[in-house]
Specification:
Layout lengths: L2 H19 L9 E4 L2 E3 L17 E3 L4 E5 L4 E8 L4 E4 L19 E2 L6 E3 L3 E8 L15 H7 L17 E4 L8 E2 L6 E8 L15 E5 L17 E5 L8 E5 L4 E3 L4 E3 L16 H15 L2 H9 L5 H18 L9 H16 L6
Antiparallel strand pairs: 1-2, 3-4, 4-5, 5-6, 6-13, 7-11, 8-13, 9-10, 9-12, 14-15, 16-17
This protein binds 2-acetamido-2-deoxy-beta-D-glucopyranose (8 copies).
The site of one 2-acetamido-2-deoxy-beta-D-glucopyranose (NAG) has 4 residues, from loops.
Keywords: Membrane, Signal, Transmembrane, Transmembrane helix
Pfam families: GUB_WAK_bind (PF13947)
Organism: Acer yangbiense
């Protein structure tokens, strides 16, 4: 075989190998429908599907999805996985009062350790407030939108206009104090409701039904213990963010983690820019790497700074092994190169190391 062809084969073999041992992600299972309602990834209704950080509940009696907060639960009325948002139905008023039924739970209280928070798309109306609320920065003026809402004959909130409960306020949620709660309490406001993406120019009777929109943080690659937990498009490697104490199914090079579909894909579904990104384009990295390696023949000098960040020790070892193999390939010029058979055997050996679960880090 002539040297240029062999060099090409060596390079091709290396690229293939890097693709094989690179970053990838894994085997996820979407949860079964709840009644007729799909449960998109990463939401999880049971321990065998979805991502366990994104638990919601399927009420088996009503076959409806429920969102559990710290002390209460709310029906989920819609889910939009592509923008990582869902809408829950706020509590209704207790009959003939201006008090919401979740006053006893102090309103909607999310667990701030979970990946869900209240979006800034919500316009909140606080009603039946005490005068204490007037010290807050909320808009509680007589022109505040909540008055128009209370005045509407079609909304069933007329009791909130009683003399005993006439202070109301309007604000846009999503600030630091409302990211995890819409608080109602005896000493503050005793009722609330919320509207998603409210067009305040519309007449009140054309407003949508009340809803509270909640978003979730993009899920990371699934956790794994061994390669068996990952699919063919991903490798079980240590998680650099958690200092290697956890392992995740990282996408093989050339594929990227798609947090919407929960798979390694060539093109990532992404309508929500803040929900995407985060993974390095390994294909580009490899191209640059191979190019530099061939240009400089200074393998160890180039491999470490480029790849050490965010890769496991095992991956670095694999890269190093590859680098030496590549060095062998580059020996072409010195008439001292390994045979293709040796290259193949070496690649197989490196693969076996890279995929072995017993390798010490
Ligand atoms: C407003 O809240 C107060 C305090 O909880 C309550 O006593 C009153 O009945 C409420 N107003 C209405 C109209 O329900
Ligand atoms: C919420 O539940 C916790 C534990 O069950 C309890 O300690 C806490 O008082 C409850 N808070 C409210 C506002 O109901
Ligand atoms: C909040 O969520 C974390 C993480 O799942 C959990 O460990 C913790 O017990 C939850 N807190 C409460 C009060 O439920
Ligand atoms: C309160 O809201 C009304 C209606 O949107 C607006 O006209 C008014 O300027 C606001 N007042 C304050 C103090 O922000
Ligand atoms: C609500 O109704 C009251 C009494 O009918 C009226 O004085 C007030 O101007 C109305 N407010 C709004 C914002 O429509
Ligand atoms: C709420 O979630 C969004 C998207 O996941 C995130 O960008 C934002 O930082 C979160 N806000 C807070 C206060 O945690
Ligand atoms: C691996 O990725 C390719 C390309 O995106 C895709 O066609 C294939 O179905 C994936 N395989 C698995 C097991 O996910
Ligand atoms: C490594 O991870 C950190 C934190 O996720 C990120 O900011 C950085 O861009 C990553 N670097 C590379 C080279 O992927």
């Amino acid at each position: 075989m002539n040297p240029p062809l062999k060099l090409l084969l060596c390079t091709a073999a290396m690229v293939a190998l890097l693709t094989f041992t690179g970053r990838a992600s894994s085997a996820i299972t979407r949860c079964p429908n709840c009644g007729t309602t799909p449960v998109p990834y990463p939401l999880s209704t049971n321990p065998t599907c979805g991502d366990q950080s994104y638990k919601i509940r399927c009420d088996s009696t009503t076959e409806t999805l429920q969102f559990d907060t710290l002390n209460n639960s709310y029906p989920i009325t819609s889910i939009n996985p592509s923008i990582q948002r869902l809408v829950i139905k706020p509590s209704a008023l207790l009959p003939n009062t201006c008090v919401t039924s979740d006053l006893v739970h102090e309103g909607v209280q999310l667990n701030s350790s979970l990946p869900f928070n209240v979006t800034s798309g919500n316009t909140i109306m606080y009603m039946n407030c005490s005068t204490l609320i007037l010290r807050s920065p909320l808009n509680c003026s007589s022109s505040s939108l909540c008055h128009a809402y209370i005045n509407s004959s079609t909304r069933g909130v007329a009791r909130c206009g009683d003399a005993s409960s006439s202070i109301c306020c309007t604000f846009r949620a999503g600030g630091s104090t409302t990211s995890y709660m819409i608080r109602v309490r005896e000493s503050g406001c005793r009722a609330y409701t919320s509207f998603v993406n409210l067009d305040t120019n519309l007449a009140v009777d054309r407003w949508p039904d009340p809803g509270l929109e909640i978003q979730w943080v993009s899920p990371r690659e699934p956790k794994c213990v061994s390669q068996a937990d990952c699919d063919g498009n991903s490798t079980c490697g240590s998680d650099p963010i958690l200092g290697g104490s956890a392992r995740r199914c990282f996408c093989i090079s050339g594929l990227e983690w798609d947090p919407v579909k929960g798979v390694c894909a060539e093109e990532v579904t992404c309508q929500n820019p803040s929900g995407c990104g985060g993974s390095t384009d390994r294909t580009a990295l490899i191209a640059v790497y191979v190019q530099r390696m061939m240009d400089e023949e200074k393998l160890m000098d180039t491999i470490d700074p480029m790849l050490r960040e965010n890769v496991s020790d095992l991956e670095v070892d694999t890269m190093k092994a590859l680098a030496f193999l590549a060095a062998g390939c580059l020996e072409d010029r010195r008439q001292n190169r390994p045979s293709m058979k040796e290259v193949t055997e070496e690649i197989e050996y490196i693969i076996s190391i890279a995929t072995s679960e017993t390798v010490k880090k």
